[in-house]
Design goal:
Layout (H helix, E strand, L loop, with lengths): L5 H27 L3 H22 L4 H25 L4 H24 L6 H6 L5 H4 L7 H19 L1 H9 L1 H6 L4 H42 L3 H30 L7 H19 L5 H29 L10 H8 L3 H12 L3 E4 L9 E4 L1 H25 L7 H7 L5 H10 L19
Antiparallel strand pairs: 1-2
Amino acid sequence: MNEWNWAGDGTVMLVGLLSACACALPGNYLVLRKMSLMGDAISHAVLPGLAVAFLVSHSREAVPMFIGAVAAGGLTALLTQAVHRFGKVEEGAAMGVIFSILFAAGLILIRQATDHVDLDPGCVLYGNIENIALVARIGETPAAVINLAIVFVLNVLFVALFYKELKICAFDPALATTLGINANVMHYALMIIVAVTTVASFEAVGSILVIAMLIVPPVTAHLLTDRLWVMIPLSLLIAAATAVLGRVLVVFGPVWAGVEVSANTAALMAVLAGLFLFVALFFAPEHGLISRSYHRLALSLQIIREDILGLLYRWQELDVRRTRPAHRDDVLTAVGNTLISRWALRSLLRRRQVQIEPPTKPGDEPQFRLSEKGLSAASRLVRAHRLWEAYLEKHFNLPLDHLHMPAERVEHYITPQMRDDLEADLVEPSRDPHGREIPEEDRP
């Protein structure tokens, strides 16, 4: 039976935690600036920098590797901007071209390096998080933990010190320039931070999986909130959850499932990050698919309810000329005999805005009329409709038969303040362009 070993499993979890959180911090700004592919580009394009640093120094020490990574990351950003600006190439395409070429060159250089020393390309691509605790001496903190802790603190300081500048540059680089903030300097500083974070995470999660840690937690957080000051800590929380749950599932998952399988912690972290993203995609309170579908349905239902109220108002307004009152089929035929229309009519009955009156003669259908509450709501809607028709006729000189449809679309969104403004603009009109009386304002 698998048991938790704090010296081994705890170290692996700590490495995953530091790596995921360090990546998530700059990843927030890549997502906001719609430069997620740049994170992917840098995570792949630093490979030639690492290979050149090793070939020059013949060492895998942190300092030359960081220098090589920073140089490659800066080169990637510069070449991408050059191709985009001078070559008139779309920015995403420019990123794809540059990182593909540099990544291929990096793989060739790494292969050359492996002829001279044990430099495992698979470790660079997929990470070596499972064996990090094994390479350290007893009682010694693994170098990966120290490096990632330094990078995480560096990223925290970078975000904290330049929070305002990064925020303005992310949302409006032109505004940042007018405020005296050099948007280009902030851009390349962010790219350097991404490059340093990427190379620090290579040993843990590798160049392929680092992009998941860099982008997926911030994207998930962005689905859950539109506030940057909430998005950043939320992305850190999601990143931390992927690391902790990832290691726990690697250790205890096979026991709980009753199977004998082995899994890679970094890969499971990426899978969990993807699962969190899909959960947020469906269940986010504002941007989730279920929430958005619910709001669209609620809006459709509200519009049909108001259409029915307006229909019954006009029906009762012309009742003196009609031979019979409105019946259920009349209402549903006018607004469309659909499931949501029948639902809207039942909703109006429950709200007591529409009432059913018994037939005047045996065998006749019950008639539908507005209650006092419904009449008040319907009069406000019809007032908005007819004021808008009068406004269009005054300012746009449209033919009479071109006024109804635009007003019917807009009437659902006209606020009380807008009704007052329309009335003031029209100098208190009493009738619409068709000669129909405009109801008096009836505040709810």
